[in-house]
Amino acid sequence: MARPKIALIGSGQIGGTLAHLAAMKELGDVVLFDITDGIPQGKALDIAESGPSEGFDAAMTGTTDYADIAGADVCIVTAGVPRKPGMSRDDLLGINLKVMKSVGEGIAKHAPDAFVICITNPLDAMVWALREFSGLPHEKVVGMAGVLDSARFRHFLSLEFNVSMKDVTAFVLGGHGDTMVPLTRYSTVGGIPLPDLVDMGWTTQDKLDAIVQRTRDGGAEIVGLLKTGSAFYAPATSAIEMAEAYLKDQKRLLPCAAYVDGALGLNGMYVGVPTVIGAGGIERIVDIKLSKDEQAMFDKSVDAVKGLVEACKGIDSSLA
Ligand code: APR
């Protein structure tokens, strides 16, 4: 059986890391695409040349021609610009919206059966726009944010409790921005919910609050350190986790920016919610019940996403 084909639209920091991870995990043959000639070809060759030492079997090619993504099983989109210190993800909206238009048209023409994972920011609005421009089924177009935000939350919690990250589970919902909602009640250490750990005296509410805030600011913390771009190792790893769930029909329960129509009181929008990813793409939206406080935070985040979608419609009238 032929190996799956993975197309990476955008071959910058995240795109290159995605290619390397996909090769190391032997998820399939990789096509790196970019508008800047030389970058995708150079990265593809460089990664292919790591193959003999690493021992993976995966073809790596680079291209500036959308025709080369033909028949891709998975497309991961990072095309666009990342933020610089002082910028919010929302500041990228105008420029990245134009990029989503060309990417959406390219995917629609050459890889209409692909499972599409969008990483480009501002995430929730860009994945919505990419779906609109591509016309692909909603369950096959999803945004990567919750896996990353939850991973950041899990990492900070593992430091606080001095336990393995493997034993920490966490849920972050809502939009991928300052209003994201880390849900402490649904986050656990060894199965024990965080509020219980506060009651047990293993940590304090103040420390937990600080970790929640650090999670919300997780992307900005890295932008502030790097100064020349934004995070790429953890974003790429998170998207690969989603791609693997699809390609191997793992039925993973992962928080993603998915199209929600009915669940959580929402009708027809993209936002971060718990999902099940398998061979059907987004196979289920998990309709969790929120407390009054959690609902208020989620509503605020939903409103922020709606504001960005309206801004997109204002910029490109074909979306209105
Ligand atoms: N089509 C294809 N590729 C494009 C296009 C386009 N229309 N416009 C820009 N690109 C390419 C750039 O040439 C660059 O190689 O997208 C790549 C982006 O790479 P980086 O600048 O290194 O950005 P990266 O860190 O990978 O982040 C990409 O993901 O997390 C988000 O906020 C981040 O929106 C940003 C995106």
TrEMBL record:
Q: Which residues bind substrate?
A: 83, 89, 121, 152
Q: What residues bind NAD(+), as annotated?
A: 10-15, 34, 96, 119-121
Q: Where is the Lactate/malate dehydrogenase C-terminal domain?
A: 148-307
- One matching Pfam family, short form? Ldh_1_N
Query: Carries keyword Kinase?
Result: no
Residues annotated as catalytic: 176 (proton acceptor)
GO BP, sorted A to Z: lactate metabolic process; tricarboxylic acid cycle
The broad enzyme category this protein falls into is oxidoreductase
Which UniProt keyword terms apply here? NAD, Oxidoreductase, Tricarboxylic acid cycle
The organism's superkingdom is given as Bacteria
Q: Ranges for the Lactate/malate dehydrogenase N-terminal domain?
A: 5-143
Q: What is its EC number?
A: 1.1.1.37
User: Which reaction(s) are listed as its catalytic activity?
Assistant: (S)-malate + NAD(+) = oxaloacetate + NADH + H(+)
Gene Ontology molecular function? L-lactate dehydrogenase (NAD+) activity; L-malate dehydrogenase (NAD+) activity
Q: What is known about what this protein does?
A: Catalyzes the reversible oxidation of malate to oxaloacetate.
Q: Name the family.
A: Belongs to the LDH/MDH superfamily. MDH type 3 family.
The protein in question is named: Malate dehydrogenase
Which species?
A: Pacificitalea manganoxidans
